[in-house]
Amino acid sequence: MRSPACLFNSCRFFATKHLGMAGVGRIGVSLKFNMRLLAVVPSLFDTSPGQRFRLEQWDPLLKEHGVDITYAAFEDEELHAVLYTAGNIKEKLRLVGRAFRRRISLLRSVRDYDLVYVFREASLLGPPVFERWVHRAGVPLIFDFDDAIFVPYVSPANRYLSYLKQPTKTKTICRLASHVMAGNQFLADYAKKVNEHVTIVPTTIDTDKYVLSDRADNTGPPLIVWSGSYSTVQHLDTLRGALQRLAQKENFRLRVIGTPTYKLDGVDVEAMPWRARSEVEDLACGDIGIMPLPDDRWSKGKCGLKALQYMALGIPTICSPVGVNIDIIKDGENGMIAANEDEWITKLTQVLRSAELRKTLGKAGRATVESEYSAKVQAPRVYQILESVRHGLKATEKPRMSNEKNALPSRG
Questions:
Q1: Which residues pair with 40 in a beta bridge?
Q2: Short-list 94, 174, 169, 164, CA closest to 127
Q3: Distance of CA 307 to the CA centre of its chain
Q4: 17: exposed, middle or buried (C-beta count within 10 Å: 0-12, 13-18, 19+)?
């Protein structure tokens, strides 16, 4: 059975192709659109964290003010079903070939749009053929990336396919773009080597969906939560020693989200796969959120999504001092920073032993998200970028905004 997200995309694609519409928006809702944006993305709607916490999250706020977004995913349902599993190399190559053919077909319609937005890359493998064609066609291209995709990386699930990727193409796409949106300073510095039109737009949280949860009813030992995926569980592995030492003197439980099994001798572990329908609920019952990262170039490109999710729910958060984490977290104020195993044990111990400290850090973390990392705050900046690029404004020029500081322009 097809998922609701996939059905939604299919309906939108049908209307676009067969009814001559740039996009149907939310089904059953009539809106006046004045900007047509083609979103060239890797993944199906509502299946990828990067997309969900960037353009897909900004979509309804942009749509209210006339931006109609049509999504064109590299994946289809068959490719999505096998891509992130180990093996099946022949089937993956067959389905990737079919995805390339879809991209070629899409080239015929790019001039029907005011702007083309590319998230990370138009094609998962190979050179930036699609991006070059869009540039030559004269359609303004906005490039958005939230990971250090220019750093060679071998996926645990797709080791052989990883060698067919071209991380160096990121620089080419940055150069071809009319404007680059980068998720943090490290990524922005990379883009600025070849393009002066670069804006840092952090990954954001829907603060209407992520709300403070009442932990007064929590019983039993405090629950430490880690959320990730099959490919990032190696980051949690860096804390195995610290968690085992901690368990010798403190009573706690560990919830691991993103992998069906996780064994850690001496620690009470509950492992579960990531589930879209219960993502918030699975996190919300946590008492402490952790985000360990290795200090390498790939990790410096991370945009702190997991920390922001914890913080938005009022969960006190402890992170490694890597990349954007040190910008998000002010140690001891809205969260904590732990640089080594001893610091992890010390700070986890402090938070485990004090419900009042957990409450104080949690409220401060939530305030940080509301003021700096919410979709409501950042979507107006994204709209400014879209308007600037569409009207060909220089980097120093800004489209006119309403009087309210963070309001989107009104349609009149």
A1: 72, 118
A2: 169
A3: 12
A4: exposed
Task: Show the tokens assigned to 363.
Answer: 């409220």
E-strand spans in 235-326? 253-257, 268-272, 288-291, 317-319
> If you search the block for the tokens 């645990």, which residue do you land on?
156
Would you call 20 exposed, middle or buried from its count of C-beta atoms within 10 A (0-12, 13-18, 19+)? Answer: exposed
Tokens representing 373 are 């990392």
Burial (CB < 10 A; 0-12, 13-18, 19+), residue 249, is exposed
Task: Give the position of tokens 């869009």.
Answer: 134
Which residue type does 246 have? L
Give the E-state strand segments of 57-202 in sequence order.
67-73, 115-119, 141-145, 179-182, 198-200
| Domains, the chain | 4-203+375-390 (3.40.50.2000), 223-372 (3.40.50.2000)
**CB 143, CB 54: distance < 8 Å:** no
Return d(Cα 111, Cα 22) in angstroms, integer: 11
Torsion sign (Cα): 199, 205, 21, 39? positive
Pull the structure tokens for residue 282: 């699975």
Give the C-alpha separation, 233 to 62, whole Å. Answer: 34
8-state DSSP, 355: H
Tell me how far apart the alpha carbons of residues 261 and 147 are, in angstroms, rounded to a whole number.
26
How far apart CA 206 and CA 282 sit, in angstroms, is 16
pLDDT string in tens for the chain (412-residue length): 434 444 434 344 333 333 333 333 333 344 678 999 999 999 999 888 889 999 999 999 999 989 999 999 999 999 888 887 777 888 888 998 999 999 999 999 999 999 999 999 999 888 999 999 999 999 999 999 999 999 986 665 555 555 567 789 999 999 999 999 999 999 999 999 999 999 999 999 999 999 997 766 677 899 999 999 888 999 999 999 999 999 999 999 999 999 999 999 999 999 999 888 899 999 999 999 999 999 999 999 999 999 999 999 999 999 999 999 999 999 999 999 999 999 999 999 999 999 999 999 999 999 999 999 999 999 999 999 999 999 885 443 443 333 334 444 333 3
Residue 280 CA to residue 92 CA, distance in Å, equals: 31
Instruction: Take residue 44 and report the two structure tokens written for it.
Output: 């199906």
Torsion angles phi and psi, residue 272, rounded to 5:
-150, 150
Run of H or E residues at 148: none
In this structure, what are the phi and psi dihedrals at residue 112, rounded to the nearest 5 degrees?
Answer: -80, -5
Burial class from Cβ neighbours inside 10 Å (0-12, 13-18, 19+) for residue 403 reads exposed
